[in-house]
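PROTOCOL LOG
Step 1. Enter all chains and additional molecules of the complex.
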Amino acid sequence: MKLELFANSSRHKPGSGVESWDDGRLIAECLAGDQGAFGVLVSRYQDRLFNTVYRLLENLEDAQDVTQESFVSAYQSLASFKGDAQFFTWLYRIAVNAAISLRRKKRATVSLDSTKGQTHSFQPVDESRDTQPGASLERMENEEQIRWALGRLSVEHRAVVVLKDIEELRYEEIAEILKVPIGTVRSRLHRARLELRELLERFEQESKNRDGSC
Amino acid sequence: MLSEYQLSLICHALDGPMTADQREELRTLLADSSEARTLYLKLRSDRRRIRRLPRQLAPATMADAIMRKVRERQVLVLPKPSVPRRYRFAHWLTIAMSVVVMFGLVAVYLQLTGNDRNGDLRSRVAKRSITVESLAILPKAMEENISKGAEDTAKEPPKVVVQLPAPTQNSVDTPDSTIVLPPMSNAGAEEALAAPYDSLMRLFKVEMPKLPPIIPVGELGEATRRAQLMEAIQGQSVVHIDLFCSDTNSCFERLSKLLEQHSRPVLIDSLARLRLRAKLKTDYVLVSDWNSPDELENFLRKLPETGRSHDGQRFDSLVPLPMSAANLRTLATLLGVEVKALKPAIPQSADPRKPLSDLTVDELARSLEKREDKTPLSRPVLAVSYNPVRPNPAQSREIREYLSSRPATANPASILAMVVLRNLN
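Step 2. Run joint prediction.
Step 3. Record the structure below.
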């Protein structure tokens, strides 16, 4: 993949040490017209960004599209990157905003299509889990619960939880990405945690009820 | 029940750094309240569970896909031109100097053009102006000019003298000067005068394009209209006449009847006949040879008599046009012949200085004998569809018949008329 990535760069060959360059130097190379330098930035941040976007959208295809478009947008507006923030913060801002917009759009579509009076329901745990080892089963169940609960959070709350707990960013960085004050980040995180707790308790209660009825 | 502050304190303990006071408060809260302790542990467990979520890696092809998109869209990163701080003074100084130089150049240009203008005006005034003393001898000169004869005066009409206040810059050189304007033509109302282009208020002639006359068919009986028609067709060997009417099919039938009344049989092409029978909206063209423009004019004068005034299907107007090369090509295409075939050869006039040979006399006698046996040759009129055009005119029997009936040599006064019957709507 990397060979292909650098195929268009005459100046950078694999193993030439370009991967160790810092973001600022790579951006300067990009601005000088070297697309290969941007390839290094892509390979540096693609996994991290993709994971964040995926946790926000819970859909692989959407996450892939949003990540790709975010990188392309970042490249297009690289000249406007002032350098007073970190590159990845700036990149995250583009991607998270795109994901939030897509999420809102989709939610609006779903709310129009969904039936009236629909109760809170969750994806039942895979019935075939009994055949799997216990640890794996527990991990899967945990993942399922968290995914379900995260999916029930509002997109603003979810973004804060994902950036704080999954990406382990600082308040200041989250505030920079979401373009909100630090106090807002704190209050959103506080409400998101309590809401998530309630959702997980409801999930556990419903699981117990299902097991009891069986 | 925990208060909002206690809840925020517990959440804050999970996420951010705490002051010593906050830490002390939390410790007290957790020691005193089992509810707070349980919630803290649960929230910490939730956070741990979220952190244990597997990381989703980007697909292996993503980087390539991104770079491909960048290349496909030909995204260009254009860095903003930035001026380093230490060069900013020089940068602005350069801009200011450029502006000053530009203003200077404009000022020099204006000065130069101003001088030119003054010089030009001065020289014109010197050339064309005359003093009060010389004004006295001007009528004499005009009289001499007029007496030179009508031909000269037609070429160069008398100059008009206008008293104008002297320009201030010429007050020293030419006090009480007058300016003689260039001669103005007095050709009449047909000429238009353009707007003046310079300070001397000179007016120029504009040639008006000559448009073909539009003659209402109902007014063809009037002398002026006939004169207009004759002026348009006189001296032409081929003429194109657009004849407008409200319904071409009924007007065509009426025109055919009128032609037959004038002993001119109409050869209607098969396509035109089909469209006429089906009453389809069609423009027709009638091609006919006439001995002279007068004969054609006499025929056209009968057009108003063909329709009743109240039926609304009368001929509306006609527009005679000299045959352009394009129209001639169109006619040749309609008939499927070469353009030169449409112009029959005009016989050379006999040279009175040469004696008539015996052979010629014999040929003439034989020809006259043949003519006596036969009925006078009828000159048919060909009618074909003009819109739509017949695709293969060479295969039309009527067209072939018409072409064969045309004389090999034509009278110099004869005229070929292409009358296009057009729908008014």
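Step 4. Note key features.
Residues 90-127 of chain B form one domain.
Chain B is about 45% helix and 15% strand.
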